[in-house]
């Protein structure tokens, strides 16, 4: 989910650079990893320790030079392309209930409130900060054993921190992953020359139904089938003597 995007990026970078860099030269905070440190020869592993997969044959030195060059080029592209310094993704990571009791979490939740302040009324913006401080120092929060969005939506949390829950649940609606691309593909199947005047509301209805059917793994007939749609009307009473 959205609160894991930044951590997953950092983990991806870490796993990659450890294939050719010495562990002591990989900073704990990967946001401090620079292109200079990647290209610094003193930070590189010896050829025999650079990862190329399992092989019983010793790779030639020239081949390993090319492998190292490839690693460095790819790592530089990762640093340039991946939004590892994106403040929004960093703020999203603070929504993890396991990361309370930390001033950094408090700071990031306040940043999150500023980025999503259009979800708050003027009267809610002040109390939002108060709720953030109370939440970060709360020792009685329930464990997060389920999905994090469900954790924030549960009564014991949302009733205690209604404004903070409002912001976090809005943040969890951020659409990411491979479904983003598939959504555009679905859109191109619906909107064509004959339907180019379709309203946004109608397109949204189409997309919602499609994803509901996909999530339920059922056909339209199965999903919308209703049991006993026709009520049996009582028979007309008979009268004696008629």
TrEMBL record:
Q: Mind listing the GO molecular function terms for this protein?
A: protein dimerization activity
Stored InterPro entries: HATC_C_dom, RNaseH-like_sf
Cited Pfam families: Dimer_Tnp_hAT (PF05699)
User: Where would I find the HAT C-terminal dimerisation domain in this sequence?
Assistant: 134-212
TM stretches of this protein: none
Instruction: State what protein this is by name.
Output: HAT C-terminal dimerisation domain-containing protein
Which source organism does the UniProt entry give?
Answer: Elysia marginata
